[in-house]
Write the structure tokens for this entry.
Amino acid sequence: MSAKKTEISKRATEVLRLLKSEYPVAICELTHESAFQLLAATILSAQCTDVRVNMVTPALFDAYPTPAKLAVADVAHVEQLVRSTGFYQTKAKNLIGMASQVMTRFGGEVPREIEDLVTLPGVGRKTANVLRSVVFGLPGLPVDTHVGRLSRRLGLTKLEDAVKVEYELNAMLPPEEWGEFSLRLILHGRRVCDARKPRCEECLLESLCPSSTLPTKKSTGKTATKKLAHKAATGKAATKKSTKKPVKKTKARKK
Ligand code: SF4
């Protein structure tokens, strides 16, 4: 391993240690009581907040408590139940398709292997890793927008592709830590390392973060900050507002 890779790997281990101390309990914020419910909730969470999904799933699971019931559901009724999560037509179709395939191909049980999970409608690698790590206790590191952003800001990767980021992080961390590392990065991204305005002054990772916006300790009193490092890591200036036009929402994709 090169000296640079060793340094990044050590940083990943330190990030893991600090996040564990800051967030001793790492839980998935999607309400669920079974693998089937978490799978359905994660499909609904595409382009939607966990809070909103948790408002919708009680009625959905009351009406369709099992894959067998959801597999034969009336699509218009499911659409009506999940409407407020956005992209409701695609999501309703994926939910019914997922349940149908769980019944016909997996005997009514949600599969555990990633190769099987990703063949289900609406299920991508991120959702498959959520299932594996949260309900099955198996290694799986879901890379969502928070995990990708924080990994780049912390200098753990330079890559944008979520699957490549997942593999890079996997190589630096013990498999039994993958799932909770992802959950803790998500918590930190939501609470401190905001996409637009990271609160570096209250961040416990600041001392090892190459993208911190705070003045460096060796500051000469001029403008010696880590902003350039931030720019290098994210492609954006740390404090400037983005001049990009808002991106139009696209169809819900596999997560
Ligand atoms: S120091 Fe700033 S940029 Fe780095 S992880 Fe913390 S909040 Fe994010």
Confidence is low (pLDDT under 50) at residues 218-251. The pocket of iron/sulfur cluster is lined by residues 150, 153-154, 192-193, 198-200, 203, 205-206, 209, 211-212 (CB under 6 Å). The longest helix spans residues 3-22.
